[in-house]
User: Fold these one by one.
Assistant:
Number 1:
Amino acid sequence: MRFLLVEDNIELAEAIIARLSLDGHAVDHAKTLAAADEWLAVAEYDLMLLDVMLPDGDGRAFLRKTRTTERVPVIVLTARSQVSDRVDTLDLGADDYITKPFDFAELEARCRAVLRRRGTPTPALIPLGGALFDPSGGTLSHDGETKPLRNRELRLLEVFARNKGKILSKTQLLDRLFSQDAEVSENAIEVYVARLRKRLSAAGVEIETVRGVGYRMTWA
Amino acid sequence: MSSTTTVPVFWRSIGQRLTILLAGIAAVLAILSWWMITSFAREAAERTQDNVLVASATTIAEALRSEQGTILLELPYSAFAMLDAIGEDRVFYRVAAGAQTLTGYEDLIPPSNPERPGDVAVGTIDYRGDQLRTVTVMRTVLADQNPVPVLVTVAQTRTGVQAIGSGLSQTAAVLSVALFILAVGLGTFAAGNALQPLNSFAQAVTRRGPSDLRPLRRKVPDELSPLLVALNRLMERLGQSIRRSEEFIAEAAHRVRTPLATVRAQAELALHTVEKDEEKQMLRRIIRAVDESSRSASQLLDHATVSFRADALAQEVVDLADLAEKVTDGLAPTAEMKDITLTLDADGPASVRGDAILLESALRNVVDNSVKYSPAETQITVTLAPADNAHWRLTVRDEGRGFSDASLPELTARFKRGTNVDQIVGSGLGLTIAEDVLVAHGGHLKLSTPDDGAGACVSLILPAA
């Protein structure tokens, strides 16, 4: 997917870009509203992440303006947590908001929810053996049958799918799945891996256990 | 403030103070008028007696005649008849030529005698145990061609005069008491009336919500206008300082949250690049600490908003079904991350009256709590149904750890968290916010453990519009 990130704090922007790239997304970065206008004029985006307090103006005014010309879904990044501010933001036409500081997993979940609500077509299907994996829609199709994946299965499968043949350790997987809730143990990974194996075995996709190291997914 | 404790009780109220002062003045006036009426009455009675005595003595004096050098007197009846008019007083008389008593009581000696014929001498003496009023007139009678000065003294006891005096005095006393009571009544009324503008002024100030800081525009008496001006100035300064602190809070939130977001994002990113377990552990701790501080900050701000808005509650009509949908939609992605199914069972419209933002904040905090404390792959159900024919009930039910019975009563207390929360990030303000909002709307929050065991059940009960 292609993101436009409008955020004036460079360190934060870099971290967001690095993290989104890690998941295979392309991100353009605008430090000001003026720069954002320029990007919007030349490129098509699946999603815009918009900070509300920017050096050259209020992101909410920009939001009101772009709502009339652009169809791109917007998630507002806000430091204002008060309910009244949040309601205000949604009234101005944002699709959702996320309060700083945020969890990347939550940002991802909100992006996915917004895209699903918008019904934006996602061509980025990943063929896995005999099955088709749709990470944006959260489904796995096999033998003409499309099944929804649970969120954690989906995230885990996404990590495996983007790392074909690579060995991934349990902690690596844990970080991608559960960075936000500390209560999850490594045993949970085993549970989800077991579920994925069951779903994928018919399609000829194999998740093998590499003793003492982690897991590796391979498919034809 | 300490000075008020030394002031007598009645000085604490201007009304009482005025009433007591007016009553005091009325008492002084009543006593004064009683005394004046009494003394005037007594004087008038005495003057009447004196006049009658003078007339009586003159009549006797005129009845004197001389025959062959002897002075004769035939007492005229009328002289005593006129004295009978004044009650049952006893009458005494003496007619004397020089030191020689011609007739009457020899020992009736008046305190003074007139010096010339035609003069009248009036006096008071004690005579045989009674007080007497005496009147003496002098008449010169010719006896054997010699003028002989004859003194005629008529005296009378004063019982009648005193009776009249005390009768009048009693009447005057009754009148004075009546006057006093009337004056106190009028004084109370006057004090109340004079204080009326002050009371209505105070009511106008009291009726306002604490956050209503518009200047007061009222007609007040001149004496109150300095107070009005001072109050308006105070409210203006207060309003400015509230606005400044609100701006400050928003700015502070922004300034704090942006770097926190950077720290969290960088730490999370680093989590994917470091290899060693202890390094990962450290990064997780950083993330946890950031989450904790940002969550506390949001809830403190929410709580401040709630306290501020609850004081001046908006009265718009809010559809709970609509509101519940907004909240569940907003939290669905968060719930989804833990594969929690968040379902809403609500048939609208369910109208209540109040502040939509506060109500949303209450429900959001409750649902957010459920999402946070529920294990992965469970259900949270939000149900909207009538509680009775005057109330709506929004129930949030989860399959989480529930409430431990011991901590149930105190969970809505500020900063109190259940004893079974383990490692979950939280500030302990969520349920407090919800309860504050509900109470401000005339409703209440109910925590319970469902009959069939597992999970928690939080009910938000609100009066229907």
Number 2:
Amino acid sequence: MAKLDFSRRTFVQGGVGLTVANFLPGTTPFAHAATMEESTIAAAKAVGPAAVNGMIWSPYLVPMQPVIAEFSKQTNITIGGVQDISIFDAPQRAMAEALSRSAQFDFIHIDSNMIPSLASAGYLEPLDDYMKKANFKIDAVGDYGNFMTYGGNTYGIPTDGNVHIQYVRKDLIEDPDNKKRFADKFGQELKFPETWEENLRLQEFLMDPSKDLYGSGNLRNRANGVTWWYMIYYSAGGFPFDDDMKPTLNTPAGQYAVDLYLQDKKVNHPEANTWGTPQMIPRIANGHVVSCQYWDGTAKLNENAAKSKTTGKWVYGLVPGSDFSGKRIHRSISSPLAAILINKYSPRKAQAAYMALWLGSGKNSIPIVTDAVNTFHDPWAKEHMASPLVQKAYSPGGVKAIEKNFQVVSPPIYLTGFLEFQDALGKNLSEAYVGQLPAKDVLSKTENEWNAIIGRIGRNKLKSDLKSYKAVMPKRLVPA
Amino acid sequence: MAMTKSRRRRITMIIRYAVLSVWALIAFFPIYWIVSTSFKIDTQWFAWPPFYFPNPPTFSNYMNVWFGAEEYTSTQYAISSQKPLISLWNSTVIATCSTFLAVLFGSIIAYGVSRYRVLSDLRMFQLLMLRMIPPIVIVAPLSLYYTAVGLIDTRTGLILVYFLTTLPYAVWMTKSFIDEVPREVEQAAEILGASRWRTVFEIVLPLIRSGLVATFLFILILTWSEYLLALIITKTNVATLPIELSKYQGSTEGRVYGRQAALAVGITIPLMIVGVIIRKHLARGFSFGMVRR
Amino acid sequence: MAVAAAPAAGLPPPPARVVSRRRAIRLFKISLLSPLIVMFALVLMPALLLQLYFSFHQWTVYLGTWWDAEFVGLDLFQEVLTDPRFGWAIVRSLLFATGSTIGCFVFGFLLAYLMYEPFRGNAVYYIIFILPMLTVPVVVAYTAEMMLYQSGPINDILSRLSGTEFKPAWLSDPNIALATVGLLEIWNWTPFSFIIMLAGLSAIPKEPIEAAEILGASKWRIFWEVQLPLLRPVILLALVLRFLEAMAEFPKTWALFQGGPGSATETLPIYIFMTTWQYFQISKGAAMSYIVMLMMIVIVLLAIRLLRREKQSLDKMYEQPSKAEG
């Protein structure tokens, strides 16, 4: 692993272009006859032409279209009907598909954390055989490729990294006046924050609501806020279940995470409790935010001078960590992680699967993750990190931050019933954030609700799921 | 004495105009806001202080949303693969077909009620109240059942439920028109030997033609704007306009208010025109025999 | 029924023509209603039965198909009835429905009262007043989002008018959120009450009012003692229908809040929707649906009784003069 990292870094530094990047790990560099892409085409041709239907959100589909067109040209496998639905609504619609065992969609483009639920409901086709036939490997940075596996099978092909990185306004932390005031007040240097506490202090110090500048740009709404909580909780050494599938939220680590999560209220915009990405991203890009953790795609927006007022004004880096467990741990998160999953009931599943493999090759997906208008897909493959196009779109600092965070990237609850578990937690956190629920009751209330869910789904079933969940968790405490 | 009386009348008049005008502003402002937003450029959608007038006005929102015009999608927020024109067609077909069925069956039943008391007063109210049970309590099994019989995501499926749920309104409203038709006309027809069906179609319904149009448009308003059933029962093939609009909600990168507004204007204007046309009859649609004229 | 039972009562057999006419009428009645009954049996009945099945069978969607769900008796009903979230949802729905119904009625009545006598500009006001009702509910929700953010036009206007900084967070303050939906509902549906009340007020016969005026009664007394009693049926109708519709309100609440902030706007339809379509507890959702259906049926039956009584007395009132004339 270390060796690979080294070779990648040399490529990056040398600015080696696309053609060389094709021969990076994942394919067999010298003794091969066909590239991964070529064998995907060959396998796809063998299953015959078809028009495949899918559920995918148009901002994701649009940049894919030229890449799909190339595939269609070579294989006669095309896109038929598409249900255009937002990535946040897709999980519910996909579950509805699964429980009616519908064959209407051949593929769905969805948060990969839905894999356990959808696979348990019998909806998903394992992709390992197709991958073998096409000589395909998921060439992901860090342990990110594990996110696609459940119960020993691979069920998804990622198209979007969507890892959280840390954003801090460079102009503000490098401002000599700010630096001096900070040093005078705290006796410490004003610099990029390494822990949650440092981050909060920095946010509080630099914010100025009278200029519409708020400390934080983190989401705290009911649907998304919980994603931020996991990072704090995991970095405090927490894990939501013990080996017997008993919830372990209501622990010191859990309460620590809740308290930090709620302190965001001091530094965030007063309307943040209902804001989602549509409201928050423009605030980040237009310079109303000091520091936050956010999906990495926002870096691409920030660095796009046509759309952003903060181009060049950011430092990107590792999300804050915590010393709570006695050791410094950093945990980033990737959710929703958009991936293509294949419907087991579909008569065109082979065609859809090969199209997914085609889209999931590092080389093919470079134009997708660098699209300047539809900034939804974010880089995830090793090839992306070396690509000059990606470097240009995300800025070299951005790419470095993405790589770093990928090494400690973790999932939300990767179990059957993900939506139920997550919503119970999200709802209680949201109630606490708006003041409807005392902070100390959040975790005990959530545990009670979780126990009901565990009872319904079955403890033994979830215990076997737990293995997959643990396999997806990162092993390093901090990035190498 | 006379002085004070006319003065008092003037004061009441002023108060009346003042109160009515205030409410007219309240009623009209949101509608103004959505129309004006649809003509604003993106920096003015969500600005502080707010822009009360689009400056300069632009058609780009309409071009982008309704026609997916490339020049507007490549520069900024692109949501081009959504297909409002197809949804417009779906909405039109679904709303008109279900409304037509509701008015057709509704008027025949209304005739039966008016002339032969096919449904007692109690049954008539029960029919009305059937409509008042929240649709949410039935959508889940309905969608499973629809999947099983292949009606999910089809126009027929939506038309059937819309027909059934609007029928009570159709019966009540057409009945109020039929009640006003003097019985002598039909009796004459009957004596001449016309069958009851012929009497209905050739004598009674033509007599209440304008009433049928009013009923039709009234129910069209209900079916056109229905959201929950359409949300659950449609997937790729037959999304209606309110569903199309709700897709803009989750769009990231920025509040795409201008685009949303441009679509919303297109959804709402037809209804407003329809409503203004039948404004005199709206009271009938809602009063269920409680108002005599 | 009454028609069919009449011939049996020992009367001489009616002439053949009358019998055939009666039979024809009965046939006519059946043919009128049968398509409706068939449609109902084919479309809604299976769904209702399926719902009943689910409310007694625990179907965990990850474990198997719905037809081999486990029979659990009344467990699901017990679960729903002991669920505090369900209780709160009922409370919120009742609050929302009551508040918005009263609001719609007060404004609708006020406007109708100011407009039922003809005056210059009457028609223009009428058209403007009915526009909110003709706005698609989802559009209302998104328009509200465009206008109600904290530094949005509504707060701007209110601040300018009041001369003070007036900045309620309409959309993100959990104490206000439900009221915000309520205000939207009032804006959206005041036209409904207005139209009904206007029709009611215009239909009141002039004679009693004129008589009272001649006797020197004040406008206030005429309103309370003559107009209001005559309007009772219409008022009841406006209240009952509005209340029932408000209990079922979904599009605005969902499009704007999805139950948040916190759970401030989690009304019955929202909670049922989330239980069914977000947590996929289809069975619990079914049990909830049946409870809500029963609750609504009770309310509806009460409403029917009220409305029928009013309608009968109204019918009587209008029948008498025509009889006197005949």
